[in-house]
Design a protein that fits this description.
alpha+beta, 4 domains, six-stranded antiparallel β-sheet, five-stranded antiparallel β-sheet
Length: 587
């Protein structure tokens, strides 16, 4: 013990620890590298494949949109998240797979770096080249190659894959650094292969099969499992692995991954159907993953084990959808990501929005839904409740009635907001206690009230925030996300409580925004309660208590904010609304 203390005093103990951990890390990386080399050696030893037989009817009604998207890619143009349409080639017409075209940042300097050794320096937006590398346009190219019998589309797939093999050669470069990106790319390649198989022979598609095999073997060793708090990355990997196992007739792996998906779905989705990542968009994203993987493998996957929770999760996204603009409120982060887009990128030449119909109507159209698990596609209407009074709402939604505590503080500061409702009528009320969201809506009115929640990297400082639409007009809305890593200032601006319609004082943030752009403390507001005709919640910060009260009737919306210690400040609705981003990267 004496020698240990002596080593600690002179600093050799900490120095030894660093040496040991660095050596272990290098050993792990070397072991991983040789394992990846084995993947390359075994890439030709392929199993037989079971490609997905997708009916022609799925594509025929949208052939113009598929052709529009495919022709854009033929001209080296594609949509990059919310940034818009960009030319993704150099002056010679060659696709640049490693470039951030938005911020003019080239990541080619990492092309020869082993993926486990890649460290990003925070310059540029890595999501841009990753979006190019997902090859989502391959589906449109495949559809056009088959239905228009034109080899120009098939040749474009081959040339793009050739560029990828040369500039993102496994296991080097940014396109292997994130297993979730590998997962999405593999799924797009598998679905494209399945479409092309309608017209092309196996030997013509060998280059795709080889690449899919490398992706599949990679994911078997890199699924982003975390013994702590797992997230959508791991869930994406295992859903992609399920599709891969089905594709390669790997029945043993399929059963193993099936159990993992069932376990993880129950872990990541709450009892009220919401997702644990405190983001409505990531809820849609994770729900889409399991929707596609179970749909594509429904002949083998035992869906009944997740059926009830899946219906709750689908009910959540339908219930919170704003009937006025048919979008969900963008609570928490949004990266505009999709696991798979079997429909082309454009609908009537406009980017597809984040509304619930994508899952409800396209992934699970009525005929398929009935065949798999849903006997009545209008099941969610059973959960719509009509209330004539706060009392009725309290009894049905089981909201606790409790008098707010306002004693023992130096002073009280109040601010009140009132909005007249021209078109009243009955309201639908929805309460999601696990997520921390209360929604009131009808055809011309929408109000969401954020409370509670738990710490997550995709959460914002949005405790007690409200989004409000009255008589079909937006009064105030959640601003969205804008960007992640390309701008620390913008990232924290959109996460800040100053950018949300919540009670505000001159004190510090609800949770401290650190240098880590994906780390934030708990949403510290209390569970929603009822008192004197209002629903309310509160949060405590540095001996202050901030209350927000909400009352809605047929003629008026009343919002009352109370601070028991500090002065409340004025909130500019215009400033917050000007920040709004429906899609990642788009103001």
């Amino acid at each position: 013990m004496k020698y240990l203390k002596l080593l600690q005093r002179i600093g050799l103990f900490n120095f030894s620890k660093k040496i040991i951990f660095k050596s272990l890390r290098r050993l792990i990386i070397i072991t991983s590298y040789f394992r990846d080399c084995y993947i390359l050696i075994g890439r030709e030893k392929l199993r037989s494949v079971s490609f997905f037989k997708i009916k022609d009817e799925v594509f025929i009604n949208f052939l113009d949109d598929y052709k529009y998207t495919a022709d854009m890619y033929i001209n080296n143009k594609c949509i990059l998240l919310g940034y818009g349409v960009f030319n993704i080639s150099d002056e010679n017409g060659k696709i640049e797979i490693n470039k951030d075209f938005v911020n003019e940042t080239d990541f080619s300097y990492l092309s020869n770096v082993y993926y486990k050794n890649i460290v990003l320096n925070g310059v540029g937006d890595i999501k841009v080249p990753w979006e190019v590398g997902r090859f989502k346009e391959f589906i449109s190219l495949s559809v056009c190659a088959v239905f228009f019998n034109d080899n120009i589309y098939f040749d474009k797939i081959k040339s793009a894959m050739d560029v990828f093999e040369k500039n993102a050669k496994f296991p080097f470069g940014i396109h292997w650094a994130c297993p979730m990106e590998v997962s999405i790319r593999m799924v797009n390649l598998i679905v494209s292969y399945s479409i092309l198989r309608k017209f092309f022979q196996d030997n013509e598609l060998e280059f795709l099969k080889n690449s899919i095999n490398v992706h599949y073997m990679y994911l078997n060793n890199n699924d982003e499992f975390n013994f702590g708090l797992r997230n959508n990355h791991y869930f994406c990997c295992i859903n992609a692995l399920l599709i891969g196992a089905y594709f390669f007739n790997d029945d043993r792996k399929f059963k193993k991954i099936e159990r993992k998906i069932i376990t993880e779905f129950n872990y990541q989705f709450n009892n009220d159907g919401s997702n644990f990542e405190a983001s409505t968009c990531y809820h849609r994203y994770s729900l889409e993953m399991v929707a596609w993987s179970t749909l594509l493998t429904y002949q083998k996957f035992d869906f009944h084990e997740i059926k009830d929770l899946f219906l709750k999760a689908l009910n959540f996204i339908i219930s919170i959808t704003n009937n006025i603009d048919n979008n969900i409120p963008i609570i928490g982060d949004n990266d505009s990501g999709f696991f798979l887009r079997l429909h082309p990128l454009f609908l009537d030449k406009k980017p597809y929005s984040l509304n619930s119909n994508y899952i409800l109507n396209f992934i699970y159209p009525q005929n398929i839904a009935d065949a798999i698990f849903i006997k009545n596609s209008k099941f969610y209407k059973d959960n719509v409740k009509f209330f004539s009074s706060i009392k009725d709402m309290r009894n049905v939604l089981k909201i606790e009635e409790k008098r707010p505590l306002v004693k023992g503080f130096n002073k009280i500061s109040k601010k009140e907001y009132k909005f007249k409702i021209g078109n009243g009528g009955n309201f639908n009320y929805f309460l999601f206690s696990d997520f921390g969201l209360f929604v009131v809506k009808n055809k011309t009115f929408y109000c969401s009230f954020r409370f509670g929640g738990r710490s997550c990297g995709h959460m914002h400082n949005d405790a007690l925030s409200i989004e409000l639409w009255v008589d079909n007009k937006c009064i105030i809305r959640d601003p969205g996300t804008y960007v992640y890593t390309s701008s620390k200032y913008d990232r924290n601006l959109y996460r800040s409580y100053r950018s949300h319609f919540s009670p505000q004082t001159y004190s510090s943030e609800q949770n401290r925004l650190t240098d880590s752009l994906f780390s934030i403390g708990n949403n510290i507001s209390d569970h929603i309660k009822i008192w004197n005709g209002y629903v309310y919640s509160y949060l405590e910060d540095e001996n202050d208590r901030l209350y927000r009260f909400l009352k809605i009737n047929k003629n008026v919306v009343e919002i009352l904010d109370i601070s028991l210690k500090n002065d409340l400040v004025d909130i500019s609705f215009d400033d917050i609304n000007q920040l709004f981003c429906l899609d990642y990267g788009k103001k």
